[in-house]
């Protein structure tokens, strides 16, 4: 997997997080609470509007709640990234 820039990277991560959240039938509020992050931060991540670097810790917290591997967030698979 190769990303041309940070924007493409964040877009892919955000799209995949949204996909897996919806697949788990969780609202943004539910995921944010379970991952112990703010709903506004999660909303920015999913909308590719993250204005600060995502930490591995935050990605791990989200992955644990969604019961997926962190590397799933980086996949550019059409079925994951475009099902939002």
TrEMBL record:
Coiled coil: none annotated. One of its GO terms (molecular function) is DNA-binding transcription factor activity. Residues 17-73 form the HTH cro/C1-type domain. One of its GO terms (cellular component) is cytosol. Keywords: DNA-binding. Transmembrane segments: none annotated. SMART domains: HTH_XRE. It comes from the Bacteria. This is XRE family transcriptional regulator. It comes from Agathobacter rectalis.
